Amino acid sequence: MSEKKHNVSRRQFLTYTLTGVGGFMAAGVILPMARFAVDPVLKAGAESDMYAVAEVADLTEEPQRFDFSYEQVDAWYQSEVTETAWIYREGDNIVALSPTCTHLGCTVNWDANEDYPDQFFCPCHFGRFEKDGTNIAGTPPTEPLHKYVTEVRDGTVYLGTAEPQI
């Protein structure tokens, strides 16, 4: 092909040039904003964090309520979160259960209803759970209470995340 057939008019040259320059300028503006929006999502989560909650010496075979707080970083927002756990000893094992009902997320309490002693009871929808967190058949919850990952170090109970027992 000869060069005569590849003539570019002034209008086409300006269109190509302005499109290219505009594209580079748009990329220069959009890429930092996209990085700002996506970067917190790509950071490694703190799912393996363990929090000191109670002393082993303070635990009994009766579930006790323990509140614990920790700093949570959610994307670029940092806040203090307070959670609760029902903790008790079962022989040499330590069991820590989440107080969140698996039916609709209400808060359950231990031995709160005199009609159902020694059970976790949800007053909102009358959900009931055994001491080990197992849901009682015929009540609204369809799965057991979630169980915290536990670890004992130097006589202190550390809790991780609450995981389903199923």
Automatic annotation (TrEMBL):
InterPro entries: Rieske_2Fe-2S (IPR017941), Rieske_2Fe-2S_sf (IPR036922), Rieske_Fe-S_prot (IPR014349), TAT_signal (IPR006311). PROSITE patterns: RIESKE, TAT. Belongs to the Rieske iron-sulfur protein family. Component of the menaquinol:cytochrome c reductase complex. The Rieske protein is a high potential 2Fe-2S protein. Pfam families: Rieske (PF00355). The keyword Transmembrane helix applies. This is Menaquinol:cytochrome c reductase iron-sulfur subunit. The main subunits of the menaquinol:cytochrome c complex are a Rieske-type iron-sulfur protein (QcrA), a cytochrome b (QcrB) and a cytochrome c (QcrC). Keywords: 2Fe-2S, Disulfide bond, Electron transport, Iron, Iron-sulfur, Membrane, Metal-binding, Oxidoreductase, Transmembrane, Transmembrane helix, Transport. Residues 82-159 form the Rieske domain. PANTHER family: CYTOCHROME B-C1 COMPLEX SUBUNIT RIESKE, MITOCHONDRIAL. GO terms for molecular function: 2 iron, 2 sulfur cluster binding; metal ion binding; monooxygenase activity; oxidoreductase activity, acting on paired donors, with incorporation or reduction of molecular oxygen. The chain crosses the membrane at residues 12-34.
